[in-house]
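Researcher: Quick test of sequence recovery. Tokens follow.
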């Protein structure tokens, strides 16, 4: 059994631009292969009309413990502090088990 972690962000109005979105995507996806137990990561930064979020993170972890460790991982937090947190107004999170 694996665990999926999905985040939706709405950016602060003054940061709703391609440069900020690209930084979020490149920053977070640079964590691939660096986080124990993380088997997948993807950041979507091109919402279609009708969307009410600006970016989405989707990643998969082998265990719930790996997901919990990700939240406090220094590499993850350094990226989030540099590329994500300063620019976001709203953050929604959904974590769930992926059934085999």
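Model:
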């Amino acid at each position: 059994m694996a665990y999926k972690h999905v985040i939706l962000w709405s950016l602060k109005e003054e940061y709703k631009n391609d440069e900020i979105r690209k930084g979020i995507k490149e920053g977070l996806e640079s964590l691939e292969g660096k986080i124990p137990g993380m088997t997948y990561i993807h950041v979507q930064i091109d919402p279609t009309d009708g969307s009410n979020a600006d970016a989405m993170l989707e990643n998969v972890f082998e265990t719930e413990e790996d997901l919990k460790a990700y939240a406090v991982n220094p590499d993850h937090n350094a990226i989030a502090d540099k590329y994500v947190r300063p620019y976001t107004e709203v953050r929604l999170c959904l974590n769930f088990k992926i059934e085999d």
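The mean pLDDT is 97.
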